[in-house]
Each structure stands twice: as structure tokens, then as C-alpha cells.
């Protein structure tokens, strides 16, 4: 774990976060200060901490069945389990209510889609990938979390954008609420 965190700090340092890239964790050299550096560091740390949390909860999230299919019937969204899924994500402490509400809207829209275009075979449309990382390779990505690279962090007032690479390219959009950065949107740039 120490080597993972040290590697992550080095990655953040090379991305311009101002973390010391010292050879020893016990005697780091002070980083040059720049306007906005603490905010950039805090925004980057929020993304890293969320991904660490998600890595340890990926199996739990994956066990929540979001789509039902009674024998011989069409797919339908399981809204009760959808709320369990969103409650699990909320427990991370790193997501806005707006982010979670977007998924509630998504679940309603997908149910309407199932009603308009009934489906009973194959992967249920809209649920064939991990909903957080928007990828079919989330388990591989989480196993490679030590390879996370923060590429760029931009802060403008109470909004921040963290671009990073975790086998795929991502943009995390954050907002500051009560002096804390929270993730408001996650985009998989590789999938767009």
C-alpha cells in the first residue's frame, strides 16, 4: 500500500500538483507554490480517494441486480435495487446528490426504453457496462489502480476538472460544497 501511495504521489507530482517528488518519504523537499495549487491537490485527491473507495466496493456494487427478468418476460429496471446501488455510491462521501440524481433519471429513461423496445435476450441495453467508470473493463481497471495517472487539473472558482488515465481516459468534474470537493460528473473520454 505504501508503494502504491508513493507511486501515486510521484504521478501527481509529475502532473504539476506540487507534491514533492523526493527519493525519501521522510525528508521531502518543499514544492514551489502556485496560485490554486492547494485546490488542485484537493480536487486530485478527491478523485484518487473515490477510486480507491470504489475499488474496494466494486464487488458489492456488482452484486446489486439493476435489471430484472422474470422467466419468459422482458427486462425491467429494478428501482428498489437502483436505490440500494445509489446509496452504496453515496456512502463513498465523494459524490454530489446531482450525480446520483442523474442516475435516477437514467434508470427511469432505461425503463421507458424497455417499455418502448421490449428486450428479453442479450445484455440489457444501457446496463452492459460499469455505470461508474462507464466501461466494460472496470474490474481490470481497479486491479490496475496503481497505474492511475493524473494528467491535468483545472480549477475555476468552485468547479474543478480532473483529467486522468486509468487504462482509459477520464474527466472528473467536481464542485466545491462546504469547502470540500465532490464529484459531480464522470466522463469516459475513451468511450465517447
Description:
The protein has 192 residues and is of the alpha+beta class. Helix content is 40%, strand content 19%. The protein contains five helices and six strands. The strands form two sheets. A four-stranded antiparallel beta sheet has the order 3-4-5-6. A two-stranded antiparallel sheet has the order 1-2. The radius of gyration is 19 Å and the shape is elongated.
Strand count, sense and barrel status of the largest sheet are: 4 strands, antiparallel
Number of domains: 1
What would you say the CATH architecture is?
Roll
Number of helices: 5
DSSP, total strands: 6
* Quaternary structure annotation: single chain
- The parts where pLDDT drops under 50 for at least 5 residues are 1-35
> Globular, elongated, flat, extended or rod-shaped: what is the shape?
elongated
Look at the structure and give the CATH class: Alpha Beta
Q: What separation lies between the terminal Cα atoms?
A: 33 Å
Strand order of the largest sheet: 3-4-5-6
Give me the secondary-structure category. Answer: alpha+beta
Q: Kindly state the mean pLDDT as a whole number?
A: 85
Rg for CA atoms: 19 Å
Q: Into which percentage range does the β-strand content fall?
A: 15-25%
Helix and strand run: HHEEHHHEEEE
Helix content: 40-55%
According to CATH, what is the topology? Nuclear Transport Factor 2, Chain: A
Topology:
Elements: H1 2-14, H2 37-62, E1 67-68, E2 76-77, H3 79-90, H4 97-116, H5 138-143, E3 149-156, E4 159-165, E5 169-177, E6 180-188
Antiparallel strand pairs: 1-2, 3-4, 4-5, 5-6
Amino acid at each position: 500500500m505504501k508503494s502504491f501511495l508513493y507511486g501515486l504521489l510521484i504521478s501527481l507530482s509529475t502532473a504539476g500538483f506540487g507534491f514533492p517528488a523526493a527519493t525519501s518519504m521522510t525528508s521531502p523537499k518543499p514544492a514551489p507554490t502556485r496560485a490554486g495549487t492547494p485546490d488542485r491537490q484537493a480536487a486530485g485527491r478527491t478523485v484518487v480517494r473515490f477510486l480507491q473507495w470504489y475499488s474496494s466496493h466494486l464487488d458489492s456494487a456488482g452484486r446489486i441486480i439493476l435489471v430484472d427478468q422474470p422467466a419468459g418476460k422482458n427486462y425491467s429496471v429494478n428501482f428498489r435495487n437502483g436505490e440500494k446501488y445509489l446509496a452504496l455510491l453515496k456512502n463513498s462521501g465523494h459524490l454530489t446528490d446531482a450525480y446520483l440524481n442523474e442516475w435516477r433519471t437514467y434508470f427511469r429513461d432505461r425503463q421507458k426504453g424497455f417499455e418502448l423496445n421490449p428486450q428479453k435476450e442479450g445484455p440489457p441495453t444501457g446496463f452492459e457496462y460499469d455505470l461508474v467508470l462507464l466501461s466494460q473493463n472496470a474490474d481490470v481497471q481497479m486491479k490496475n489502480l496503481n497505474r492511475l495517472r493524473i494528467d491535468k487539473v483545472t480549477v475555476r472558482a468552485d468547479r474543478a476538472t480532473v483529467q486522468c488515465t486509468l487504462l482509459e481516459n477520464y474527466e472528473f468534474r467536481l464542485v466545491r460544497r462546504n469547502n470540500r470537493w465532490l464529484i459531480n460528473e464522470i466522463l469516459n473520454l475513451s468511450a465517447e
